[in-house]
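Following the same procedure, backbone shapes were mapped to integers, as reproduced here:
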Amino acid sequence: MFIKQLSVFIENREGRLEEVLQALKDSAVNIVSLSLADTCEYGLLRLLVTNPEAGQEALKGAGFSAMLTNVLAIRLSHQVGKLQELLQAICGENINIEYMYALSTGKDDASIVLKASDLRKAADALAAKGVEIVTSEEIQAM
């Protein structure tokens, strides 16, 4: 149900992102989705990749701090208010949404990746609404 997200801490300086991407490319790890947030001094790169363990190993070998985190990826229909409706189901269970970003699945739908304070409870709340969860196998096949 949960998928592994690769999180990489990188210095906010020219060329560091390219070095991360090169390490993944050299290890034949494909990036499915990503989010990059930065401050003046560092960046936090969150990635869904086809082989998270190999990606983590490659990045650590290249000198980067990289960790794996469980996240949910959910499919949404293209309807006004659908995201708000699903988030309301999660928040109605007193679960905090820590962050989220878009995921392209190549299908005619919208998808998001989200991290919540209680992933199991969030997944249960979404399942009760009939929400489709994207699986690790689907991510690996992209």
Summary: The chain has a mean pLDDT of 90. The longest strand covers residues 65-76. Strands lie at 3-11, 31-38, 42-49, 65-76, 97-103, 110-116.
